[in-house]
Amino acid sequence: QVQLVESGGGLVQAGGSLRLSCAVSGRTLRTYTMGWFRQAPGKEREFVAAIRWSAGVTYYADSVKGRFTISRDNAKNTVYLQMNSLKPEDTAVYYCAADPRFLIPTMTSGYGYWGQGTQVTVSS
Predict the structure, then answer these.
(1) pLDDT single digits (tens) 78-88
(2) 118 falls in which pLDDT band (50, 70, 90)?
(3) DSSP 20-73
C-alpha cells in the first residue's frame, strides 16, 4: 500500500514562494511517476507538474512553467514542488499523486494513489 503525505502549504503574499513536500511510504519509487495537481473551489482538479522518478523527466502545465519546479530526493522517498512568483490564481488545494504504470502524466486518470491535499493560499 502506497501512502502519500503532503506538507508545506500555507498563506503567502503574491510574489512569494512556498515549497511543498510529498513523502511516500510503502514502495520503492524507481518505476513510479509522481505528479502534483491542484483544485480550486468550484473548479476541476488540474495538472501542475510531474516527474518520472527513474529518468528525472519533468512535465509542467503552461500556467506554472518557469515559476514552479518539481524534484525528487531518492534517499528520502520524497517529491517536492518549489513554487516561486506565486499569484492569487495559484490558490488551491494541492495534491500529490503517484503511479507505477507508465501512463499519461498530465491526466488524473494516470494516477492510482493520492495524498490528502494541502492548502495553498496566495493573497494579493
Answers:
(1) 999 999 999 99
(2) very high
(3) EEEEEESS--TT-EEEEEEE-TTS--EEEEEEETTT--EEE-TTTTTTEEEEEE
